[in-house]
Structures are given as structure tokens and as C-alpha cells.
Amino acid sequence: MSKVLVIGCGGVASVAIHKCCQVSEVFTELCIASRTKSKCDKLAAELAPNTATKLTTARVDADDVRQVMDLINAYKPDLVMNIALPYQDLTIMDACLACGVNYMDTANYEPEDTDDPAWRAVYERRCKEAGFSAYFDYSWQWAYRKKFEEAGLTALLGCGFDPGVTQAYCAHAKKHEFDTIDTIDILDCNGGDHGYAFATNFNPEVNLREVSAPGSYWEDGRWVEIPPMSVKRTYDFDQVGQKDMYLLHHEEIESLALNIPEVRRIRFFMTFGQSYLDHMRCLENVGMLSTSPVDFEGRQIVPIKFLKALLPDPASLGPRTKGKTNIGCIFTGKKSGQDKAYYIYNVCDHQECYSEVGSQAISYTTGVPAMCGALMLLTGKWSKPGVYTVEEFDPDPFLAALDQYGLPKSESRTPALVD
Ligand code: NDP
């Protein structure tokens, strides 16, 4: 019996809410809150006839701590699921602390305005210390560790697929397959086709910032940073086939390097088609990916926000997208003195996701783990005071829940390795 407040009602939140409504015995009451309440009302009306979960909706601007606190105090949830944007992570964490509620999200904090001088000063210092220049990193949310610990509350960070399930795969490999892990390659392949020349599969602003940034990987105890899209490999993915993939910076590398200290190298690769890359390069060259406001006919506009308004809404890709995703981790290391390789991954079909919950597989592969993470917190399987990433909890019940609720794992002990 639990009450959950979900903040955000976009592509990922919609899947997570669909899934929570399939587990009404745990998610007995759920409030869907977002900036645009009409979207929450529409989703609640669609789900209500087929679920025992009691659904309500609310309007909230989660950039405003006070508004989130007022909503929490009025609704009194056991858990807040932040499935809005990474920009709201800190305000929602602040509100949870002030009101004494557990917290979770699917992506680590980054500021909406990367020109903000106060943020910029910390960022520039951090770049020098840490050795990578991505706008997002865990330091902002790890700074809340002591506060959550002292309040006896749990904050679960980054519980989507990557970050999220990929870290549970790492915890699983460490627990069941290896004595020591030497290398981890995280491979994120989207073999889906939506028929548009250019569209992003999740929030365009967040997606394009991530992809156009320098890549980086962890090796021998330090970060190695490389120009954007400068390391390319080709991999033959199960049920998808051969795809080009590029090395990106990704947030889970940061926590995995800390939590699996013996690991020598961690890399993250994502597949991209040529059309996506050509469009992105062109948009970047003309300044359309900029987050800094420009003056246009007497108004200030942020180019990437304007671009977002032009691009297809990721939620609208569902009916058009065909094909599969394949996301997982390849490990090398040692077990009982022997060298060993291991690959664990999930394959998800865009059209099957659409027929089940009305969304494509990118939202599905993020929303299902968000529900399963909430399930772990609400049923007490993952509860310890503090701020944690997924690999810091027991992977067994979480992977069992993923198997049950739509993202079953596949395994290989003779995988092709990435050079
Ligand atoms: P969408 O843009 O589709 O949805 C975002 C939602 O958040 C919208 O409902 C929006 O409301 C709401 N929102 C935005 N700002 C505020 C605010 N200030 N107050 C309240 N609500 C707000 O994003 P996605 O669903 O694609 O992505 C959701 C999250 O999932 C993101 O953080 C993304 O980075 C993360 N993600 C994680 C992945 C993983 O594997 N870990 C993979 C993919 C995404 P409105 O419509 O009114 O603006």
C-alpha cells in the first residue's frame, strides 16, 4: 500500500505510470504532476478504467522548490519519482528533504542555463579536477549524501536503462560472474527507424546536448577525453544486426569507476545513423544547438529550445517506429583465476512497446526500470538512508522485476569484444 507522486508526464513518465498501474497492489495511489496539467489529466483518464490504482493529477512547476513542497505536503506521498528533466533534480531533492520523503530520478543533474555564472565557476573547477567537461555529473547530487543519510531518507539516482539497468548489469556481473572485472563496455544500440530524416528519441534538448559533447572514458584511474564522435566502432548486435557506434561520455561511468574500483577501463558506445549525424553536425555548425539566448526580433530565444519546438515530439514517434533496441554491457575479467568474458543485454521491440503502452522502446526501456526501481524502494528491497546509484543495491530482485515487467535479459559467455 503506497502513495507515489510522479513529477513529469512526458514520454518516459507515461510508460512508468502505465507500468505502475499494472502493479496496483503496490502502487495503490498515484498523483501525476507536471507543468502542463492537461497532459496529466489525459493520461489519467486513459488509464483509470483499467487499473485499481487511484489516480489524481496536479499542476507543478518543479523549478520552484516551494511549489513542490506544497504539493508533497498536500498529497503526502511515500516516494517522489522525478521523471521531469535533469534540470529539476536539485529542486525536487530539496523539497523531498524538507518534507521527509524518499526520492528517485532517471538522469543526473545538469543546469538548464549553462551560462549561469555561479554554476559555471563550479563547473570549470570541476572540469579541471575531474578531467571531463560534460555538463552533467554526479557531484551535485552526491553533495546531498549526508543530508539524506541524516534524514533517514533514500535517494535513488539514475534509474532508467542507461544509467540504471546497465549499472544493475554491472552489479550482477560482479556478484555472480567475476571475482574481478577488468573492462566494461556499455553498448546502447537503437535499431529502430521512425521514417523521419531527423528526430530524437527522448527530450531533444537533453539528447542533443549529450551527443554533441566531447566523448570520454575511464582508463587506468583517470578520464580520457576525446573530440565528439571521434571514436567509431562497428558491432553486430543480436536481433538488430551490424551498426556503427560512437564513444560518448555517459554518467554511469563516473559512479561505476568509484563503485567497482578494480576496473581498468569503462567505455560507453551509442549507435547513430549517418542521417542523424549529418543533421546534428549541420545544426551545430549554424548554432542551433546553443543553450545561450540570442536576440531575435526584440525577443530572447534559446536556439536549442526553438529547435525542440520544430522537431517531432518524441512521444509522437511511437506509432511510426519499427525495429529493436539492444542495450547491455560486455565485461572481461577473471573468475577463479581464469580469464573470462560475459555479455548481458536486453532486446526490446519498438512496435511491441507501442501496442502495450503506446510508446516507442526508448521511453519503454527507461520507464520500466523507473517503475521497477520505485518497486524496490516501496517494498523495502532497496532501502538504506543516503544517495545511491543502482549498482550500490542488490541487483537480483531488480533484474527479476525487469524480467517480469517487460525487459528480460539475454546473456552470452562468448561475446565478440569491442577493440
Ligand atoms: P519529455 O520532454 O518527454 O518530458 C518531460 C516532462 O517533464 C514533461 O511532462 C514536462 O512538462 C515535464 N517538465 C519539464 N519541466 C518541468 C518543470 N519545471 N516542472 C514540472 N514538470 C516539468 O522527456 P522524457 O520523458 O523523454 O525524459 C524524461 C527524463 O528521462 C529526462 O530526465 C531524461 O534525461 C531521462 N531519460 C533517461 C534515460 C535513461 O536511460 N536513464 C533515457 C531517456 C531519458 P511539459 O510538457 O508541461 O513541459
Task: Please give the number of β-strands.
Answer: 18
Radius of gyration: 20 Å
Beta content: 25-35%
Distance between the termini: 49 Å
Taking the sheet with the most strands, its summary is: 9 strands, mixed
Helix content: 25-40%
Low-confidence stretches: none
**Mean of pLDDT:** 95
Indicate the overall shape. globular
Which structural category fits the helices and strands?
alpha/beta
* Annotation field: number of helices: 15
Small ligands present = NADPH dihydro-nicotinamide-adenine-dinucleotide phosphate
Blueprint of the fold:
Layout: E1 2-7, H1 11-21, E2 27-34, H2 37-47, E3 54-59, H3 65-75, E4 79-82, H4 89-99, E5 102-105, H5 117-130, H6 139-142, H7 145-151, E6 154-157, H8 165-177, E7 180-190, H9 204-212, E8 215-219, E9 222-226, E10 232-237, E11 241-247, H10 251-259, E12 265-271, H11 274-285, E13 294-296, E14 299-301, H12 303-310, E15 324-335, E16 338-349, H13 350-357, H14 361-378, E17 386-389, H15 395-404, E18 410-412
Parallel strand pairs: 1-2, 1-4, 2-3, 4-5, 5-6, 6-17, 7-12
Antiparallel strand pairs: 7-15, 8-9, 8-12, 10-11, 11-12, 13-14, 15-16, 16-18
Explain what the structure shows.
Helices cover 37% and strands 26% of the residues. The chain is built from 15 helices and 18 strands. The protein has helices spanning 11-21, 37-47, 65-75, 89-99, 117-130, 139-142, 145-151, 165-177, 204-212, 251-259, 274-285, 303-310, 350-357, 361-378, 395-404; strands at residues 2-7, 27-34, 54-59, 79-82, 102-105, 154-157, 180-190, 215-219, 222-226, 232-237, 241-247, 265-271, 294-296, 299-301, 324-335, 338-349, 386-389, 410-412. The strands form three sheets. Strands 7, 8, 9, 10, 11, 12, 15, 16 and 18 form a nine-stranded mixed beta sheet that branches. A hairpin with a 2-residue loop joins strand 15 and strand 16 (338-349). Helix 8 (165-177) crosses helix 15 (395-404). The chain is globular, with a radius of gyration of 20 Å. It starts with a strand and ends in a 7-residue tail after the last strand. The site of NADPH dihydro-nicotinamide-adenine-dinucleotide phosphate (NDP) has 34 residues, from helix 1.
